[in-house]
Amino acid sequence: MTKPHRLTLPTTALVLVLGTPVASWWLIGDLTNDEARRLAAEGVELDYAIRPVSLGPAGDRIVGVLACVGVVVALAWLLRATARRRLDPRWWWVLVPLVGAGVLVGLAWRVLTAGGIGANIGAGLMVVAGGPALTVLLIVAAVAAMRMRRPRRGPDASE
Q: What pTM was estimated for this model as a whole?
């Protein structure tokens, strides 16, 4: 009899971190404003900072739903592993900033791919404000991960 397949902690954390930008992208939805949508329906060519990539309505929905399910299952599994003391709670200092960065990346993609007439001011603001915020989140996660490599010192440990 074969052993049942179990998810590993790194795989589950990877699903959470990589699924978060896709899930947030799908949940946020297209940020093209109503006026631009109306003009596009009339045949006016919209301006984009970055042209959106789409698999069509059904493909986008499938990808978005799968990403959301993956994120929820991974989050539940990691919380359960933490409660059962199989995951060191210090890992959340790494995972939470990475999840926040994923949400920011999903939002940034929607802002940068929003159609409009003329300049996309939101894209500029996203680069100016979102870039440093993303950098801070990634640095926090990296510092927390590096601190995990150090051995824990107990209250009676000598220096």
A: 0.82
